[in-house]
Design goal:
This protein is mostly helical and 130 residues long. The protein contains five helices and no strands. The radius of gyration is 30 Å and the shape is rod-shaped.
């Protein structure tokens, strides 16, 4: 509903190795200039304001295109995975409860199920997989 059938055919027939998000912006600029010449836009300041807003929106689209163009290197995911598992292992050891008043020989690790540490790990690992 944003384009006529003729405009859609022109858009589809345009050959470009990249995305064609910029084509409607060129059309808009040409139509706005034509409207200024025909007197539908009465003041050049209004035309300038329209063009500035259009250019701002176009730059946001190109920024989004840039984010899509550059992928996240595999090293980042490997580093985050290693950090999550290392954090979990450190928490598993570090959050053990030792009662020093009991006089344990060598202060060995207590054997219990660290529920909140496991819950935290499940959240982090799930977030990592997303």
């Amino acid at each position: 509903g944003f384009m006529t059938r003729y405009e859609r055919k022109l858009f589809d027939d345009l050959k470009s190795p990249h995305l064609k998000y910029w084509v409607p912006f060129v059309w808009f600029g040409n139509l706005a200039s034509k409207a200024r010449k025909e007197g539908r836009i009465r003041d050049s300041v209004d035309l300038q304001t329209l063009m500035n807003e259009m250019n701002k929106y176009r730059s946001w689209c190109s920024l989004l295109f840039g984010y899509d163009w550059v992928g996240i290197p595999l090293v980042y995911t490997q580093v985050v995975t290693l950090a999550v598992y290392t954090f979990f292992f450190a928490c598993l050891i570090g959050r053990q409860f030792l009662d020093t008043d009991q006089g344990y020989q060598g202060h060995d690790l207590d054997i219990y199920i660290p529920v909140f540490t496991l819950l935290q790990f499940f959240f982090y690992a799930g977030w990592l997989k997303v």
